[in-house]
Amino acid sequence: MATASGELSKEPTPDPAEDNAYFPSPYSLSQYTAPKTDFAGVKHKDAYSGDKKAHHLMEAGFDIDVATVGGYPAKLELWALPEEDEAVLSAFEALKPKLKNPLDLADVVADDLGEDSKYVAVFIPGGHGAVVGLPRSEDVTRTLDWALANDKYVITLCHGPAALLAASLGKTESPFKGYSVCVFPDALDEGPNLDIGYLPGRLQWLVAGLLREQGLTVLNDKMTGQVHQDRRLLTGDSPLASNALGLLAADALVEATRDEG
Question: Which region, left, alpha or beta, applies to residue 6 given φ > 0 means left and ψ of -120 to 50 means alpha?
Fold first, then answer.
């Protein structure tokens, strides 16, 4: 919507299908979304031919399973979908059935995360939805425990690192204490995201601040597309980091499974 002066509105847009729910303001969408990403081609086309379980990873030959807490359908922020980016759209179409009918994470933990698991990595996507439920989920805790104990990769960006907070549940300290990460900046959620109507109100807590409290080092205070690898934890600061994080993850996973191909 536009204001009387012709400027895009900075007021969040009410969701007509759900009470007390909002879409980001038209102005914030003009600043934060684009019809295409910075994707410039894959690096490891069909490099992996094994059976281990994002576009770069799929193009490299890895399969992806989708699991949610409780097995509920994944709800995506489709207003952020780059509708002119064929790479993103093809990955979305390929994963759509799994997003609509995901596995229950509890079942994956119980049945598929042993020492001989076929999974090679855990990918936790971003979005503000990651701060709801994941940090207090014991199934997320068990998933991260499995990844750390079995030298598997954990890949996450934007607000997705909120899930790392679950690693400390039932422990005296987080097993990720001492790790360095990139994460969506608290400063944006505290200020500009409210000012431009990207958020309809203040978050109950801020991700980077709580990660610091658990002993992690947050490397960034701005949103620039920065990525980082610390041991087998790969992180990116925002959607701007998606392509670079995909390349970093594909490099890491292809190398880790090179002997199995």
Answer: left
